[in-house]
Design brief:
This protein is of the alpha+beta class. A five-stranded antiparallel β-sheet has the order 3-2-1-4-5.
Amino acid sequence: MALSRIQQLEQYTIQHPQEVLLITVKLEEEIDQLMIFKGFSSSLMRPTEFDPDVPMLSEEAEIISIDRIQSPYNPNNPSYIEKRLTWEQMKNLF
């Protein structure tokens, strides 16, 4: 069974624990930001589901950009590795 996009991103962060991913997505007309670190996803703009089996990113959501940030993440002074990657560019890193 193929992994969903969010599962692929979570797996990436398990394999690269020195990175935090900041994902900007659009679902219908709403923008959300997700942070993924060491295999765990959370929304920065809405409540995060307690059940880890409920995906944070639906397959209908459009990934606008992905930022790779050096861990530990400091929201006041993030250390960017790469900014504004597309889904296709990120897939090349898998």
